[in-house]
Amino acid sequence: MLGTFNPIHWGHLLMADLAQQQFSLEKVFFIPSANPPHRSNELDLVAFEHRLAMVTRAIEPFQHFEVRDMEGKRSGPSYTVDTLVEIAEAENILPGEKIPVIIGSDALSQLASWHKPAEVIDRAVFLQVPRIDTPWVESIQLAPGVVKPLATRKVFMPLVGMSSTWIRQSAQSGILPQAAMPEAVWQYIQQYQLWQEAVLTKI
Questions:
Q1: CA 59 to CA 36: how far, in whole Å?
Q2: How many C-beta atoms surround the C-beta of residue 35 within 10 A?
Q3: pLDDT for the residue 202
Q4: What pLDDT shows up at residue 38?
Q5: Is the C or the N end of the chain the one with fewer CB within 10 Å?
Q6: Looking at residue 70, what is its pLDDT?
Q7: pTM exceeds 0.85, yes or no
């Protein structure tokens, strides 16, 4: 499961848990994006080290979840295609075998703007989670007249309106919704006073 996790919340964990059970996944890797090219200019994107720490704390109770910091070890923009290549090599995935990627339909609908989207499509089977106000995504238009179908399967999950954006905005206004995330994440945000100007740097 790839994402900025800025911060991770119960919606992310529910997505991963349901996908793991529905598709009998041996493991679900949580891979925080270090330098997401689409979000590099966002002022409220806290340092990778903070986001990695929050994910590590959030998934600790779940035996089928693991965190991977591979994007933090690479320089330059964090491209999904590079991460998929690295996963395939690390996990000895055979050529042509697709890697399951848990993703919301809202994020998947933007795939055409990703780096090397055709290669991402060739390498991934998208375990798609329906999102509010976003239609199901079955194909991506890569160029005028060029439409590429996706290998995608539906994760059956109730629609959840919770988002990292809402949590950040709440924190910036002085309200941190404790019930939206695991206790360990809530405590971490409190400890470092995240989403205040002074902490938008590395630990």
A1: 22
A2: 16
A3: 43
A4: 80
A5: C
A6: 96
A7: yes
Amino acid at residue number 203: I
The count of domains in the chain is 1
DSSP string, 87-131: HHHHTTPPTTPPEEEEEEHHHHTTGGGSSSHHHHHHHEEEEEEPB
Phi, psi of 104 (to 5 degrees): -75, 150
H or E element at residue 148:
strand 146-149
Are the CB atoms for 151 and 124 separated by under 8 Å? yes
DSSP structure string for 67-86: E--GGGGS-S---HHHHHHH
Quote the CA–CA distance of 48 and 6 in Å, as a whole number: 9
- Residue 86 dihedral angles phi and psi, to the nearest 5°: -65, -40
Burial environment of residue 80 by CB neighbours within 10 A (0 to 12, 13 to 18, 19 or more): buried
Distance of CA 190 to the CA centre of its chain: 22
Query: Within 13 Å of residue 17, how many CA atoms lie on the same side as its CB?
Result: 13
Residue position matching structure tokens 């991977």: 68
Give dist(CA 153, CA 66) in Å, integer: 22
Determine the Cα–Cα distance for residues 83 and 89; give it in Å rounded to an integer. Answer: 10
- How many CB atoms neighbour CB 3 within 10 A? 20
Kindly give the parts of the chain with pLDDT less than 70.
Answer: 40-41, 197-203
Domain residues for 80? 2-199
* Domain harbouring 124, CATH code: 3.40.50.620
